[in-house]
């Protein structure tokens, strides 16, 4: 059996978050559609998180559906990490990110 035959099908799920309500499923797909979703996201500069188990779970949701409460913490951590990658930090951190950068 070739490596390609052993590999699980490629899949992708896109989430939208407006900062007010729970993130919602805006796109999902497998194989060629997944590749297109990923390509569009990369083109737009969207960060991509690869987690097969999370993707498998999110694939079960319908388009437009909000993520379940059980995923709030996990998705919130991913969103917070992306904000930090973009240099966005909460005001109450008192510019701790600048202090970290100065030490590096």
TrEMBL record:
The keyword Protein transport applies. Pfam families: Bac_export_2 (PF01312). Keywords: Bacterial flagellum protein export, Protein transport, Transport. The keyword Zinc-finger does not apply. Required for formation of the rod structure in the basal body of the flagellar apparatus. Together with FliI and FliH, may constitute the export apparatus of flagellin. PANTHER family: FLAGELLAR BIOSYNTHETIC PROTEIN FLHB. Belongs to the type III secretion exporter family. This is Flagellar biosynthetic protein FlhB. It comes from Shewanella yunxiaonensis.
């Amino acid at each position: 059996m070739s490596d390609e035959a052993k590999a699980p099908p490629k899949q992708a799920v896109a989430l939208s978050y407006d900062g007010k309500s729970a993130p919602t499923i805006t796109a999902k797909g497998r194989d060629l559609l997944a590749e297109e979703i990923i390509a569009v996201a990369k083109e737009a500069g969207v960060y991509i998180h690869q987690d097969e188990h999370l993707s498998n779970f999110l694939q079960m949701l319908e388009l437009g559906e909000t993520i379940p409460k059980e995923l709030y913490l996990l998705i919130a951590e991913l969103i917070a990490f992306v904000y930090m990658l973009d240099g966005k930090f909460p005001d109450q951190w008192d510019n701790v990110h600048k202090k970290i950068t100065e030490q590096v």
